[in-house]
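Record type: monomer structure entry
Structure origin: computed from sequence
Chain ID: A
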Amino acid sequence: MRLRLHGLAAGLLATLTAGLLAQAQTSKPTFPTGAPTPGIPEPQAPRQTSPQAPRTGIIRGRVLRLDSGQPLGKVRVDIRATGVRDLPTAMTDEKGQYELKALPAARYTLSAYKGGFVTLEYGQRRPNEPGRPVDLADGEVLDRIDFSLSSGGVIAGTVLDDAGEPMAGAVVQALRPRYVKGIRQVSPGPSRDVTDDLGQFRLFGLAPGSYVVSATASDGRSEVIRLAAANSVGSVATYYPGTLIATDARPVQVEAGAEISGLSFAIVPARLASITGTVRTADGKVPVEATLTLAQSVEGGTSTRGAAVKPDGSFSIPSLPAGRYTLTARLPPPSDQIAMTDVTVVNADVTAALTLRKGDTARGRITFDAAAATADLQPSQVRVIPDAVGASLMTLLSGVTVRDDWTFEIPALVGRRRLRVTVPQGWAVRSIRRGGADVTDSTLDFAGKDIDGIVVQLTKQLTTVAGQVTDARGQKVTDATVVVFAEDRDRWGPNSRFVRAARPDQDGRFSIQGLPAARYLAVALDFLEAGEETDPDALERLQRLGTRLTLGDAESKTVDLKVSPAP
């Protein structure tokens, strides 16, 4: 019996990272704190304390085997809700029973996990489908919140090198197609393995569905491929049955609890390239202590790697497969000197010259409408994120947390950015304005000049779209996905405020809060992959099924929907 070590390999290309922008929490804004802004009322800021919600609710249930109906012990049941912390975790007993106690009133999502079984959210029927929420009132006891877990499927096989010999130490993953910001791509599934000395792997705990199997040399060094040219070929992800392009891979279909074995494929040597170049200051001098970062969107996330800038200002980044990259050079804080450029690699070396300049700064403050003046919110719960427009660096920007005086400052910005503000549940952005102009859904161009006087107004006066989902016979439907999206297709796209999806609760009712005032279409579908609502092509297909409604500011609408098959 061979000993197998799971999950100890390094990532495919690099670890996912977040947050390239440094947070400047000490710089003062260019306008006085609390100064009035033309056209924007200046109510008082929210008070800083909030009472502890009573924790008197209970959720109980059982976890059973899907194939036999027998109880499953030692299953971990997790619970989560937006804005609720310190929630308990339960383990099932020998009868498969669990109980979660001391819960505040909230809308919860529950999930069940046991090794060798498919992790499942409550109400989830298919992979890539969100679970069904559970609404719990103060002091309420909810029974029979049950799960049926299926044993996971298995994919097993052998990875070879380019000479047909077993390759030890290769990272193998089962990837699932999914939608990320409107783009269908593959992303890592729940299981990965490292090949043993015979080149063998075994991926287990897989939910039923279609998978793409990838293999990558774990150390990423070119010498693992038996070719002579030291820096011209190397190891990148190879997809079964032996292609470098994920869309050309042969899908592997896995049934519940079934084992697919005998897969054998070789890691393909890829022609790699280098990016070389220089980093200079605006006056042509060699910068001191400049750092360089290379970012690329890969497999549902963003991979990054650092590169050294030599004393003469030159740099070289070797062993890159074809793709689109973003190069960012910057000086360490407190300097805000930055340079950024996109580079496309197509099987040939590329040169790039980066010229540092003072990055621009966005400055602004948070205000509240009159109805929100006494509501509870902490500045630390609000983040302002400058999403890059049309750049692979978008997913790396984490933004800044608002200061205690409700001002914010985001340094070192270049290019076009769209401001996005994250707030706790129960809050929404009413508007983002600058100089009296509404820029809530517009872009700001940082082209060598700071942008001051940004005013973000928050509100607790939220719109609500709620209703019941039923089938053709008028019976309530709990397994469905509701999508509410703007009629105006120009308002679709990544991180759009005008597109929301939700799942009905245990009574077949749904509720979506915080949509901006606009004209919308609402549709209930028997199945929609998580994230697919961000795909403009999917929304195009859903238009003919939608029920029209118009939302005004803080308006609530009730829309009962008949469930439809996904087009």
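Annotation 1: The helical segments are 536-542.
Annotation 2: The longest strand covers residues 183-194.
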